[in-house]
Specification:
By secondary structure, the chain is an alpha+beta fold. It has 16 helices and 17 strands.
């Protein structure tokens, strides 16, 4: 367990600029812990940050980006960004910057402890369990952890990570009121929502090294798509927070948002580590219309919020669905973000700013070659019980070439999105087959449909990722998609044949069902012909389509269009 050092005056100190506390994965496969100074110095030799949970990795990355944006004061434009991309020593100014702000990065500082409020206390001077800040042990509901039933003590390095995570992803619910906060009523602080990052469907770009990842996510924030104020500053260049909220605070840009002080907290410690915490609410932040400020999420238009807020156009951050792999939501990741001068009235979604920035670099000739690969990474928290606990953590990545983001050549993006639609349609057909087989045997239908769809998506997951990874190198994206459709047909037909083989004697014998066109004898043989027809129609297998259309009891009998009047309805 880490031990504190001391300041020149003999006070305890844990200096995050020099003490190891950020977990990283090295290129040789070893894991290590590094200080802020070391992370930037060794970024080319590191693969990525490795958080205690994926959301912690996202929060720590945003902290590093805030440091980089502020130390480098940019990038101002694509030209400056390219200079950094090509310069291995682009982070050479970090040591002097960290030295200048070293005092504000001291976790145990007596006056301005890092991301905390000195002297924060309740009216009864209570000190609470560290469960309140450790996300893998929600208060009263421990899960995916060996530290049960509670966290008694943390080393200073781990405590620092959870402090950063708390501001980003802390749960909502009633918290303890603190002295000096006018919002506290009868010793309670009433809900104001989860930490800012907890509202986001987090999106960022991963390169082959941490250096590439940091640079790919360094967005020029004074462009026609992104906006930061000239005085945008991170938390350590602002006055230390008091116990209450700063009146009418609004984010000034990414440096502010990445270090937003959404909580007020204070660690309690001794020479052996941290043993308790005081935690309450900090600066509130409205969710709507921050799409020009916050680049690490997709945004969706909300007509409900437009009516509620009385505004003509409202965009809200779009969170992740834990039941959908990242590739199934590719259209959102590849959505274009209109410039400020363009109308956004008709845009149902706005793409994540970090990917839009890469799109700008890919579109501008000579900035990023079309074959440059990166991974689109998504991270998010799923909250339950009135946002008072974290139920799940979403973590997925998708490898692609930057040509998919090129705004002057949308062929690759269009084929990638259409390939997802191919998968969706084929899986729907598989679900219809499961329904037909269930109806033929007299069984319930919803369970078989959902299981078949899940099986279909699982089977297509790895093939789609591999296909997409190779799409950027294809000379003809339409031909590349045609190969995908053939592969989908092969995979889904194979699963369908397994379902038919396992349907049992009852389905083989069949039964009479009533459709909109009259009564029909439905059995597994009839269901198979319908399955082959539907699959051929959505994926384009002319021979199979021709053969099934010619069958005596095929769509020519009045069931030509799958829908309410087909067996699977």
């Amino acid at each position: 367990m880490s031990e504190p050092g001391s300041t020149g005056g003999g006070l305890p100190s844990f200096d995050l600029t020099s003490e190891p506390w950020i977990p990283v994965l090295r290129r040789d496969g070893r894991q290590d812990e590094l200080s802020l100074r070391e992370v930037f110095a060794q970024a080319s030799d590191l693969v990525r940050i490795v958080g205690d949970v994926p959301t912690q990795e996202f929060a720590l990355l945003r902290l590093l980006l805030a440091v980089a944006h502020d130390a480098l004061d940019g990038p101002q434009d694509a030209d400056q960004w390219v200079d950094w991309w090509e310069d291995e020593s682009c982070f050479a100014s970090m040591p002097s910057y960290l030295d200048a702000h070293r005092e504000r990065f001291d976790l145990l500082h007596p006056v301005a402890p890092f991301f905390q409020v000195a002297g924060l206390r309740t009216s009864r001077d209570e000190v609470f369990s560290l469960n309140r800040i450790v996300a893998d042990v929600p208060n009263g509901e421990p899960f995916f952890t060996a530290r049960m039933p509670s966290v008694e003590r943390l080393g200073f390095a781990e405590a620092a990570r959870w402090v950063v995570h708390t501001h980003a992803y802390d749960t909502s619910g009633i918290k303890t009121g603190v002295v000096g906060d006018s919002r506290a009523k009868n010793g309670k602080a009433y809900p104001q929502g989860v930490g800012w990052s907890g509202n986001l469907g987090g999106v960022f770009a991963e390169g082959d090294t941490l250096r590439e990842t940091l640079l790919l996510n360094l967005v020029a924030c004074r462009t026609n798509r992104h906006r930061s104020d000239p005085d945008d500053r991170p938390a350590w260049r602002r006055e230390p927070c008091g116990p209450g909220a700063v009146p009418n605070r609004r984010p000034t840009g990414v440096r502010d948002l990445y270090t937003w002080q959404g909580r007020r907290l204070r660690l309690h410690f001794d020479n052996g580590g941290v043993y308790g915490v005081v935690l309450s609410y900090g600066d509130p932040l409205p969710l709507h219309n921050l799409h020009e400020r916050e680049p690490m999420t997709v945004w969706r238009r909300s007509e409900t919020q437009e009516k509620k807020l009385g505004e003509s156009l409202v965009y809200m951050p779009k969170t992740h669905n834990p039941e959908r792999a990242v590739w199934r939501g590719l259209s959102s990741l590849l959505a274009e973000r209109p410039t400020v001068s363009q109308t956004t009235e008709a845009a149902p979604e706005l793409g994540a700013g970090v990917l839009e920035w890469i799109a700008q670099l890919a579109t501008a000739e000579g900035y990023l070659p079309r074959g440059t690969r990166f991974r689109a990474r998504i991270v998010g928290a799923v909250y339950g019980t009135q946002q008072s606990v974290i139920d799940e953590v979403v973590d997925d990545r998708l490898s692609m070439a930057v040509i998919l983001l090129n705004r002057q050549d949308r062929r690759y993006a269009q084929q990638a999105i259409s390939a997802v639609a191919d998968a969706d349609q084929a899986v729907a057909v598989l679900g219809d087959l499961a329904v037909d087989l269930a109806r033929a045997s007299g069984a319930a239908t919803e369970g078989p449909r959902s299981r078949a769809r899940e099986q279909g998506y699982d089977a297509l997951d790895a093939p789609y990722r591999s296909w997409l990874q190779n799409l950027g190198g294809a000379t003809d994206p339409e031909e590349h998609r045609a190969r995908w459709r053939t592969e989908v047909h092969r995979i889904i037909r194979g699963i369908g044949e397994q379902l038919i083989a396992g349907a049992g004697d009852a389905a083989w014998q069949g039964r009479i069902i009533t459709t909109g066109k009259g009564d029909l004898w439905l059995n597994s043989a009839y269901a198979e012909r319908w399955f082959r027809y539907r699959l051929a129609r959505v994926l384009g297998d002319p021979e199979s389509l021709k053969a099934d259309t010619a069958a005596s009891d095929s769509p020519s009998d009045g069931f030509a269009d799958p829908g309410p009047e087909t067996p699977a309805a």
